[in-house]
Structures are given as C-alpha cells and as structure tokens.
C-alpha cells in the first residue's frame, strides 16, 4: 500500500514555507521558519507546547486538534526527521530564485524580487492542504517571541535544544 504524506514531500513543504515567508513580510529566521513549517504540517505538536498567555488563537487550535492516527515519540525527533525535507524545500526555493542565497547563509530566509513569486502565490492561494489559520496565528502571536533562549520558540515547542544558545 502506498501512503502519501505531504509532510515528507519537499514540493509541498516548499509551498508551505513560501506561504510562511509571505506571511512574515518576506523575511524570517531559518529556525523559526522550520519550526513554523513543522507546526503547520503536524499541528498536533501544539499539544506539548508551552504557549504564551497572549496566544489565544493557538490555544484554541491546540484544544481543537486531535491526532488520532499518527504517533511520534517526541517533537524533537519529528523535527529532526523533517529537517532533511525542509532543507530540500529550501534548496528548491533557492533554485527557483525565490529566496536569497546570502541571507540563507546568515541564517535568515529573505524573499527575492523574482517574478516567479506571483506564480507561487497563485498556487498557494488555491491550496486547500495548507492551513491559513495556523500560519496567521503563528505569525501574529509569536512574532515577538525570540527563537533562542529559555522562553524562545525552540524551547516552547520542544523541538530543538536551547540551553546552549548564545543570546
């Protein structure tokens, strides 16, 4: 039996990432982008997250979301497994000239002024498999939260080690 998971599809991942980049006004930290993408593709990981008090929409999504058929040992393991797909998706976006190579080297994903973005935007707008609510809630409610440190995005979603971050 063949089972398709859009989580493991680098093309679908690149579309999710493009939508997140657009929502972030064209510039976002690479780690934040990867964590947001993981949450969009597997929203059940919100269950184990420590959300700030101001994240009301994320709390609502957290309470409504039920993961009935997929089980992962930990958010960190899921993130580690997903990272290869995300790196491939970033290379796809880079190959199409949609993101800047220089900014990616410095740890930030920045949208370029490519005309291809309009075509990507059309694909994203008609995609029913990408949840707009989660992307908007993440972008609006966690935009002020740092990526690194004890209260950062990495620590809140328990996907990456944060204890040795340089702050």
Provide tags for this entry.
167 residues, mainly alpha, globular, two-stranded antiparallel sheet, 8 helices
Describe the fold and architecture.
- By secondary structure, the protein is mainly alpha-helical.
- The protein is 51% helix and 4% strand.
- It is built from 8 helices and 2 strands.
- It has a two-stranded antiparallel sheet.
- Helix 2 packs across helix 4.
- It is globular, with a radius of gyration of 15 Å.
Question: Gist?
Answer:
The chain is mainly alpha-helical and 167 residues long.
CA radius of gyration is 15 Å
Provide the structure class.
Answer: mainly alpha
Give the overall pLDDT as a whole number.
82
Oligomer: single chain
Report the sheet with the most strands, covering strand number, pairing sense and barrel closure. Answer: 2 strands, antiparallel
Strand percentage:
under 5%
| Order of strands across the main sheet | 1-2
How far apart are the first and last residues' alpha carbons, in Å? Answer: 48 Å
Helix content: 40-55%
Q: How many β-strands, per DSSP?
A: 2
N-to-C SSE string, H for helix and E for strand: HEHHHHEHHH
